[in-house]
Amino acid sequence: MGIIFQLLFTGLGIGAVYALVALGFVLIYRATNVVNFAQGQFAMLGGYGMVITTVTLGLPYWLGILITLALMAVVGAIFNLGVYYPLRFRSFLPVVISTIGASILITNLVLALYGPEPTTLPGLTDYPGFSIGPVFFDSQYVAIIVISLILVVLQYVFFEHTLLGKKLQAVSQDKEMASLLGIRVSAMIMLTFVYSAVLGGIAGILVAPILFVSVGLGAQIALKAFAATIIGGFGDVAGAVVGGLTIGVVETLGAYYVSVPYKDAFAFLLLFLFLLLRPQGFFGEKIAEKA
User: Fold this and answer.
1) Residue 152 domain-assigned?
2) CA distances from 142 to 23, 147, 215, 259 (A)
């Protein structure tokens, strides 16, 4: 039982990172009806931002976090203006292709600047962790879970109990009607991209000390996060969180009990089973159309 609880704790820690990136997918999809396939690269940039500020420049960790998140906000704004905004009146496919192109561009720019070698990043604290019975609670995993929980709660309060949050929800549900009601739709979409980029940056900062920082970090996280959005119910915020945690636990248990080299396959096996047996996900609704 001690081993099972240890694996569950580790899986929840990794799953929380997937959940944060999945939230970015969901927020942009609900605001623009477009899937942003560069969301994983936001996490990679967050990790590299911390490497530059804390390792290369030697700045304090807290200052590195603030600078990195500020830069991620700028990246989100530039991404909105350069990738989404020029194509906002086009169909779904051109915008999706543009996000894929942007993800490839970001990856290759980082590869040209820093090379393919993984880079290490210190954890949030030097304190290793603590034990309760047979379970060791690593401080980095504890920080990931706690910070992710705080962000989810703050996001819920923001969207449900603030005027700005309700405006964002209105835009996600019906942009034309929101515009008629006097809501600046373009400003709300800009804010969504900025927020999703910051979320991705936070995910990268949290997971970088565990998985190392490399050009492949973004794709590694994005694939699992995208699967999490489908498992949870595409477009559902709670589903993104539950889907991310589920994938983290499943791949951790699979790596221990079956095979470490094939641990990434378990997430996609779970995705396949959901698409086969429950394609609407945990919280999705069945939608039927009459012929």
Assistant:
1) yes
2) 20, 8, 25, 25
Of 174 and 190, which is predicted with more confidence? 190
Residue of 254, 227, 255, 228 lying closest to 241 (CA atoms): 228
Q: Do 251 and 267 meet the contact criterion of CB atoms below 8 Å apart? A: yes
| Per-residue pLDDT reduced to its tens digit, 171-187 | 877 788 888 888 888 89
Helices (H) and strands (E) in the chain, counts: 11, 2
3-state helix, strand, coil in the chain (%, to 5): 75, 5, 20
Does residue 191 lie in a domain region? Answer: yes
157 in any annotated domain: yes
CA distances in angstroms from 259 to 102, 220, 228, 255, 273, listed in the order given: 34, 18, 21, 5, 19
Query: Could you tell me the residue range of the domain that residue 37 belongs to?
Result: 17-125+139-277
Tally the domains of the chain.
1
Write the pLDDT tens digit of every residue in 44-94: 999 999 999 998 898 999 999 999 999 999 999 999 999 988 888 787 788
CA atoms within 13 A on the CB side of 223: 11
Chain centre to alpha carbon of residue 282: 18
- Is 9 part of any domain? no
- 284 band by pLDDT with thresholds 50, 70 and 90: low
129 phi-psi bin (left φ>0, alpha ψ -120 to 50, beta other): left
Nearest to 30 by CA among 148, 163, 156, 170: 170
